[in-house]
Write a structure and sequence with these properties.
GNAT family N-acetyltransferase, globular, Aminopeptidase, 7 helices
């Protein structure tokens, strides 16, 4: 992206922060540490720890990993939304190469006893190179009679794009990627969140008992950034260079 488009991303990030604050949310950008640990445990008592790719010790496992950050939105009831992102610098290697050596870090959830290497059958994974950013641990607080939720109210779209804009400004990422279950992929959910390309068999992890987690690869490449960032800015009437 050139300087003009970088400026567009900065404008978009500023606009999204304002809109989320108008919705009653306070935004925090956190790295791994005690504060994040307390927020995570309070929001996700069903989880022992975050996904392996977002833990401190992941950096010692793979030389291709960059720093991780968590975008956390809080309201007067506590944590409302969070989104985790991890930068990677593949150099001349492809995303598929990375996954076939370090894919155990991306294993879904945290209930696996080991770090199995996935099988990667999506051809698109071999075409992604350079600096990217992985998105995972997307969480929205469940709605109850006493505590409001934010899913399905347009906030998720803002949060995910804010995270992507932050990832671009932080790492100058050339692609953003994640994994998605087939049931969500066929409904077009990744596209709503800014992942414009979806491919089946992005990664398949096999447990010792033979059961599998077979997920789709979802991503937005540099060629999509004009639509992701510039189009969003035009739709929201953010001033554009002419």
């Amino acid at each position: 992206m050139d300087a003009f488009n970088t400026l567009t991303v900065i404008r978009m990030v500023s606009y999204l922060c304002e809109k989320l604050e108008e919705a009653g949310l306070t935004l925090r950008l956190l790295g791994p540490g005690r504060e994040l640990e307390m927020i995570y445990k309070g929001a996700r008592p069903d989880r022992i720890a975050p996904q392996k790719i977002f833990r401190d010790d992941a950096l010692a496992t793979s030389a291709e990993l960059l720093d991780a950050f968590w975008l956390v939105a809080l309201d007067r009831y506590g944590p409302a939304i969070f989104q985790a992102c991890r930068g990677i610098d593949l150099g001349d290697r492809s995303l598929a190469d990375h996954l076939t050596t370090d894919g155990g870090l991306y294993v879904p959830g945290n209930q696996w006893e080991n770090n199995p290497i996935p099988e990667v059958r999506a051809a698109a994974a071999w075409r992604l190179h350079g600096v990217g950013c992985y998105f995972g641990e997307t969480w929205f607080r469940p709605e109850s009679d006493d505590v409001p939720g934010f899913r399905g109210k347009g906030i998720s779209d803002l949060i995910l794009r804010l995270a992507m804009g932050t990832a671009f400004c932080r790492h100058e990422a050339r692609f953003m990627f994640g994994f998605c279950e087939q049931a969500l992929a066929v409904r077009g959910i990744p596209i709503q969140y800014g992942h414009y390309q979806c491919y089946p068999h992005g990664a398949t992890w096999t447990r010792p008992d033979g059961t599998q987690d077979d997920v789709w690869l979802t991503f937005t490449a540099a060629s999509d950034f004009g639509d992701l960032f510039g189009g969003f800015a035009r739709d929201r009437y953010i001033p554009q260079h002419t």
